[in-house]
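thread: overnight batch results

M.L. [08:02]
morning all. the overnight job finished for the chain we discussed friday. pasting input first so we're all looking at the same thing
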Amino acid sequence: MNRFLGLALAVSIALAGCAAPGTSSPGADGAPTPAGSRTTARSGEMPDVAVSELRGATVAQLEAPADLWDRIRRGYAMPELEGDLVARHEQWYSTRPDYIERMVSRSRLYIFHIVEELELRGMPTELALLPYIESAFNPQAVSSAKAAGMWQFMPATGRDFQLQQNMFRDDRRNVLDSTRAALDYLQKLHDMFGDWHLALAAYNWGQGNVKRAVERNRAAGLPVGYMDLNMPAETRNYVPKLQAVKNIIANPQRHGTVLPLIENHPFFDTVDIKHDIDVETAARMAEVRVEDFKALNPSQRKPVIFAAGTPQILLPWNNAAVFQQKLAKADPASLASWTAWVAPSTLPSREVASRFGMDEEDFREMNNIPRGMVIKAGSTLLVRRAGQASAVSESVVNNAHLAYTPEIVLKRTSVRARKGDSIATVAARYDLPAATVAGWNHTSARAGLKRGQAVVLYLPVRAAAAAAREGVEAARRQQAEDRRARSSATSDRQRDARESRAAGKGRHASAKAEPAKARSAKAAPGKGEAKASRAKPEPSAKPASKQADKPAAKAGSKAAAKSKR
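M.L. [08:03]
and the structure it wrote out:
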């Protein structure tokens, strides 16, 4: 009986072990098959195979692109644009091989990065050609409207897309940051209009203008395509230019063009920096020319790179490792010879230059400060680094600005008082306190002044010069008035003298004429008598006439003498 119970217990344990989870049974090849796995029968229908779709409009080619041009062609995804404008721009570009070569030579540094970013975002690769239209791939290009960089961002639009613009750097020219901002903006415009051609028109003309043009056409029942809108000539030619460049790159042989080779690999690498470093020092450590370093880091406006604002620099691919090795061995304090300093108060440039042991001319040239200016408080200035100076903070670097105002230099000036002037009126004329002017002249503020009296003032140089010129003019006017007064007085005296002489002569002549008339009246005979007198004059007539004339002549002489007296 006991043996029977023991046998039953052993069988139960064995059966339980076969049903326990986690056990496995051998498969067809003797390997264990995990419990719970679904095995496929050797006979019957095969189960359905799950299908996953590939993202993208085309199937990826297995062979690698021959060069970057081939890679760009494969990513073309924008609708084609045709017409006379496109043909005209194709002709313009294809007949200028030197221009194409210069553009391509500049783009060689940047275009691989742009293509990679476009592919990562799933955007059309012909957008990598847009800087050919915007700036000919010149990161230092500046338009008449102040758009800057190879993507030609306006200042306000750049700030909208977090592109810093201050006295130390302009991120509109930064290769990485401006590309990121441009693709963000283009994607936003495409999402807004649902059309790449309209998105490009908005990039050039402004999204508000394109939106209003679309609304006008819709209200008039007209089509709203790129070629249907009323737009400026520049925007009208914008997309046709891009289409022309796209067509030339798609088939250069057809347009008689030879494209310079651009290899399908990165031109530059990014290197992190943790300490401020001079541009020349970085170029020397990377074993590249300063011009080549600046071409890859075009956003820097000063001869030093502040790590707090620019934590990465770009270097040619083969030079990045060399730079990193030398940077690891270098003393951080020896990397930068310049630093940023914030002015605590309004100071003249000569004082700041002297404080940091710099020549004033060099200081003003480094900070672009004109002559005759004082630096306002809070301005950020580039000065020589002294000893173990600490790294410049991020807040200083990102908010750096410079403000200045004309320096006021006082000059001792003497001005002449006008008629009716007082110390108070002269002070008011030059916008000065009357008490101050009175102190300069050792008198009271209410003191009156004589016309032409000298008044001492201390005026700014320009005001002093103006006052001096005014004083000279006033003196000239005064002299002219004096000359006119003297001339008038002289004329009056001369006229009076002439009138007096004329009156005396008149009285003398009348006095002499009266006796003559009297004699004539007495001596003059009638007509009959005249004949008789001529015939036979009386002997006693002549003596009588002479005796009568003597008293009259004496009387006339006395009257004339009395008149002269």
